[in-house]
Amino acid sequence: MSTPKSIAVAVLNKLGAAVLVVWLTATVVFLALRASGDPLEAILGGPGSQASPEAVAQARADYGLDQPFFMQYLSQLWRVATLQFGDSYARKQPVADLLAANVPPTLVLATLAFVLAWVLALAATLAASTARGRLGRAIRSALTGIETVSSVMPQFFLGAVLILVFASQLQWLPATGGASGGARALILPVITLAVPIAGYLAHVLHGPLTEADTAPFATTARSRGASESRVLLRHTLRHAALPAISLSGWAYGSLLSGAVVVEVLFARQGLGRLLLEATTVRDMPVVIGSITIVALLYVVVLIVTDIVERIVDPRGTARRELASSGSDASTEVVA
Q1: What does the domain layout of the chain look like in residue ranges?
Q2: CDD domains from the xrefs (predicted)?
Q3: What pLDDT is recorded for position 181?
Q4: Is residue 193 a contact partner of residue 113, using CB atoms and an 8 Å limit?
Q5: Which residues of 67-85 are buried (b: 16+ CB within 10 A; e: fewer)?
């Protein structure tokens, strides 16, 4: 039963898993970046820098690189635990300031794409489930084909096509512009991110909805005089949505990772573009800070998804109603 206590236990379990995920992520990134070369090169401007021995020694002391390797690792874990990631090697700015400037645009982009993906998936599922007769079969076949193509379509390809059609040829929407371009500059990036996820969610919704439509509870509801729209919206869609809701955490994480491609393609400011540029120059504090924030965001989304799934799950509702009716019956017997 999805009681507040069970939800709290589930949240605590997710938080425990989050600590493990962040630790593993920070460790892997730290080891990978150190294995790729001396971070001092990134601090001093690359392998071609002509820094004096005094400047090299000062830089090692300033960034703690003169400490033993294990002490550097522990210092990095402490910075991750306290979310104080230090200063960027390349930009010479606090990583916290860079994250504060780049996380909100990515969150807006991913959240809008997530909402649009669900709207498109629900619209396609409802259209396919309500269509009847020969025309209905044709509509379902067409929608199934569209979902298959969209779910496997690479985002860089879809984004390039949208830019070519709507920005270059028709000139309806800007291809770039970032925050200065306003809401119109968000349309093409959001569609680019949303369409593949929408196709996947629609695929996940179709099968369970078909099964729920022929389930005994749907037949019982129809026998009681419920209309098809009531059966769909009140009974079958709730059952069908559960697998898609369970996958929403993965879907949002996929949107965050896809933001790297979309932000570069549409020249938008954001966490993905910041992470890509930092990785190119081995800016370890920015890379670890960015990946840690992404991991924390992913865990938060998983927690929210788990709570929503427990609330929407009709089996939990049925159990609560059964418990409530049992309590009422006991009260009547006692009375």
Answers
A1: 4-90, 95-326
A2: TM_PBP2
A3: 62
A4: yes
A5: eeeeebbeebbebbeeeeb
190's tokens? 């959001």
In SS3 terms, 184-218 reads as HHHHHHHHHHHHHHHHHHHHHHHHHHHHHHCCHHH
The one-letter code for the residue type at 326 is G
Place of tokens 């709290």: 8
**b/e per residue 118-138 (b: at least 16 CB within 10 A):** bebbbebbbebbebeeeeeee
Our measurement of the distance from residue 324's CA atom to the centroid of its chain's CA atoms, rounded to an integer in Å, reads 37
Q: Which pLDDT score, from 0 to 100, does residue 322 have? A: 52
Spatial contact of 176 and 185, defined as CB atoms under 8 Å apart: yes
DSSP 123-189: HHHHHHHH--HHHHHHHHHHHHHHHHHHHH--HHHHHHHHIIIIIIIS--S-S--GGGGTTHHHHHH
Low-confidence ranges of the chain (pLDDT < 50): 320, 324, 327-335
Top-level class of domain 95-326: mainly alpha
What would the pLDDT profile of 138-152 be if each residue is shown by its tens digit?
877 888 888 888 888
pTM of the model: 0.79
pLDDT tens, residue by residue, 108-124: 999 999 999 999 998 88
